[in-house]
UniProtKB/TrEMBL annotation:
Annotated family: Belongs to the DNA repair enzymes AP/ExoA family.
Residues flagged as site, Interaction with DNA substrate: H298
A GO molecular function held by the record: phosphoric diester hydrolase activity
GO BP, one annotated term: base-excision repair
Biased composition (Basic and acidic residues): 372-388, 440-453
Protein name per UniProt: DNA-(apurinic or apyrimidinic site) endonuclease
Region annotated Disordered, chain positions: 358-416, 432-479
Catalytic residues (UniProt): Y128, D169, H298
Record EC number: 3.1.-.-
Any single GO CC term annotated in Swiss-Prot or TrEMBL for this entry: nucleus
Length: 556
């Protein structure tokens, strides 16, 4: 059996990267795949991100901004998010968590950070641990409570003799070896102390499976900051884990040398082929990537198990995503129902006059949405592969009272049908001196030119010559204005370039950044070395230069 855990940093982005959900899943060649940070709300769980042949999927979405929609699946680890149907008992706190208040437990589970699946041989926890920076007291308390309640749940399951696998992004690097820039006090952090206390080495029940197999491997990271180019020098941390607790599957498992790791784990490693930055075929960081890198800022971790006994076939759990009402097509929102009715009413009003000119090879019935833009009507057929068709001008009385609406500000409008076919005037004169241009344009045509055409071919020669003069003057003036504007921008850029300091380590121009974090320096501009973040021992990496700018940027 192969299990993969992956912080995808947006599931839709990864599906787009691989072409489809089945292609993404099949690339891992795994039996169980656990994603974190999908960035999907419950109403965004459509078939293209949920359904794949050969797989059953289970989702947990944040409920903090979607209160009242108590879920479609049993999710979380407190038992309070259970689907309340007539066939099921009302949601209740699971055994072992009775000491915690209901509101307290709901606060923990409402962020959609845990999915639990029971595979008979073991219980699998797919976790996305909270992130808390050092000066955010509220999030620190939330993170402490999250892991305290989770630990209580684990202890109760182990007391019942169950095996546990914990996978996911825990947002904790347990030891100094798991962090690129770990300082002397790195391991004193309360979350790192807690995670190490849960391991077998400290007397706890869990194995850190990767470290159990690779105890001395350095530079083994799973996450890299995306805004500093840290991937270029592998300047990251190991915060994506696979933990295991419980006995092996053999009958004679009482031996102290036999456990789930020694008996059933074949391999556990980081899938570095999924990293965004690959040496040799991607650009180098210079204050930013010259081209956008595809992929997550995390790398997947996999676990290969051996000697796993077969599990009897069973029905698909009711919490599977295939039974979600929005996937099965049984649920329809009131807004979508009213939208369809409104579109139907607009179709009835849309009576196209005979004088309309349709700018399309075909014209289907007006079954799509209809928008009004100035004096134009744009018809969009939702069942057609063509672009919206434009029709000629008409008045609101031809289309009924529903179209007496004001034109949106800033929206371009078609003034006349003729303007659709007129060619825009092009300036063909490219002489640098304005005086010469005017002289050339004002020259009288030769006699041969005058006699070359009849009066019928050129009924208004004087007006035509005047139009040419005006066009030439206009084009020349426009070119002078463009040249002046270009020179001004060049001077401004030169002045800005002269104000940018040079970094001390490489004597190269710095990049400008703005403080976005709330605090006394919010909105303040500073300069830093433009190179990618990396170890201080590497002269090619960021030299650490920093300088405040003299002025604050305007806050949006």
């Amino acid at each position: 059996m192969k299990i993969v855990t992956y912080n995808v940093n947006g599931l839709r982005q990864r599906i787009s990267q691989f072409g489809s959900l089945p292609k993404l899943l099949n690339s891992f060649d795994a039996d169980i795949i656990c994603f974190q940070e999908t960035k999907l709300r419950r109403q965004e769980l459509t078939a293209d991100v949920v359904i794949a042949d050969g797989y059953e999927s289970f989702f947990s979405c944040t409920r903090t901004s979607d209160k009242g929609r108590m879920g479609y699946s049993e999710e979380g680890f407190t038992g309070l998010l259970r689907n309340n149907t007539k066939e099921e008992a009302p949601a209740a706190v699971v055994a072992g968590l009775e000491d915690f208040g209901k509101d307290e437990l709901l606060q923990i589970d409402n962020e959609g950070r845990c999915i639990i699946t029971d595979h008979s041989l073991f219980i699998l926890f797919n976790l996305y641990g909270p992130r808390a920076v050092s000066d955010d007291t509220e999030r620190i308390q939330f993170k402490l409570k999250f892991y305290k309640i989770l630990q209580r749940r684990w202890e109760h399951l182990l007391q019942q003799g169950r095996r546990i696998l914990v996978v996911g992004d825990l947002n904790i690097a347990p030891a100094a070896i798991d962090r690129c820039d770990a300082g002397p006090d790195f391991e004193k952090n309360e979350f790192r102390t807690w995670l190490r206390s849960m391991t077998v080495q400290a007397g706890g029940p869990f194995f850190d499976v990767f470290r159990a197999l690779h105890p001395d491997r350095r530079d083994a990271y799973t996450c890299w900051p995306s805004n500093t180019g840290a991937e270029q020098f592998n300047f990251g941390s190991r915060i994506d884990h696979i933990l295991s607790a419980g006995s092996c599957l053999h009958e004679d498992c009482d031996s102290p040398d036999r456990n789930f790791i020694t008996c059933h784990v074949k391999e556990c490693d980081i899938m570095t082929q999924y990293k965004r930055w690959k040496p040799g075929n991607t650009p180098r960081w210079k204050g930013g990537w010259s081209t956008k890198l595809e992929g997550s800022d995390h790398a997947p971790v996999y676990l290969s198990l051996m000697e796993i006994t077969d599990i009897p076939l069973h029905d698909t759990p009711s919490s599977s995503a295939r039974y979600f009402p929005m996937i099965r097509g049984l649920q329809q929102t009131l807004a979508s129902l009213l939208m369809k009715r409104q579109m139907s009413e607009q179709v009835e009003v849309c009576e196209v006059p005979n004088s309309f000119s349709v700018h399309s090879s075909t014209m289907r019935s007006c079954s799509g949405s209809l928008k009004r833009s100035g004096d134009n009507c744009s018809i969009r057929d939702e069942h057609s592969e063509h672009f919206p068709r434009k029709v000629g001008p008409t008045s609101s009385r031809n289309l009924g009272p529903d179209f007496k609406k004001k034109t949106r500000k800033g929206q371009s409008s078609q003034l006349s049908l003729t303007s659709f076919f007129q060619k825009s005037p092009k300036c063909s004169i490219e002489v640098g001196n304005l005086g010469n241009e005017l002289d050339d344009v004002s020259k009288e045509p030769s006699n041969s030119d005058k006699d070359s055409g009849s009066q019928e071919d050129d009924p208004m020669p004087s007006n035509s010559s005047q139009d040419e003069d005006e066009l030439s003057v206009s084009c020349s003036s426009e070119k002078e204005r463009n040249n002046t504007t270009l020179l001004q921008w060049q001077r401004i850029q030169q002045l800005m370039q002269n104000k940018i300091p040079m970094c001390k380590g490489h004597n190269e121009p710095c990049v400008s950044r703005i403080v976005k974090k709330a605090g006394p320096n919010f909105g303040r501009r500073f300069y830093t070395c433009a190179r990618a973040e990396g170890p201080s021992s590497n002269p090619e990496a960021n030299c650490g230069f920093f300088k405040w700018s003299g002025s604050k940027s305007k806050q949006k």
